[in-house]
Design goal:
Blueprint (H helix, E strand, L loop, with lengths): L13 H18 L1 E5 H18 L4 H11 L2 H14 L8 E8 L6 E7 L22
Helix pairs in contact: 1-2, 1-4, 3-4
Length: 137
């Protein structure tokens, strides 16, 4: 029986389901928004918000836990360097789900999962500076 079980099964094995949620969370972190089914978006929202709450601690242990959950070094780096600073003033509710209608093939309800506050495009890479030119006199 499924008494008080909150997670959906999605017709997958537990390992496949966990990998699906990891992939959706990593895609959200890297791309700032994803288009998926409504049920998958609702489940991915729970996982993504827990990751942001974990990353707000900023400790090495939090970084290692996030790396173990995401299994994507690029996503972990972007989560700590870009996403968390953008969500600094919020105490929760970091994501938004917007329904976009049904999919044509099987009439599944689709949704967009995105961050509430816009994440700046300023990545952790250093900006290139133009070579100094002598001033005209």
């Amino acid at each position: 029986m499924r008494h008080k079980r909150l997670a959906k099964k999605f017709g997958r094995s537990p390992e496949h389901r966990a990998q699906l949620m990891r992939m959706l969370c990593a895609a959200l972190i890297l791309n700032d928004r994803i288009v998926t089914t409504l049920k998958k978006a609702k489940q991915a929202r729970k996982d993504a918000e827990k990751l942001v709450t974990l990353a707000r601690k900023g400790t090495l242990a939090a970084r290692r836990l996030a790396a173990a959950r995401l299994r994507s070094p690029e996503a972990v780096k972007r989560l700590f360097n870009v996403v968390v600073p953008a969500q600094a003033g919020r105490n929760g509710g970091y994501t938004r789900i917007t329904k976009i209608g049904t999919r044509r093939g099987d009439a599944t309800e689709m949704a967009v999962l995105e961050w509430v506050l816009p994440v700046q495009a300023a990545e952790a890479t250093p900006a290139e500076t133009p070579a100094e030119t002598p001033a005209a006199e």
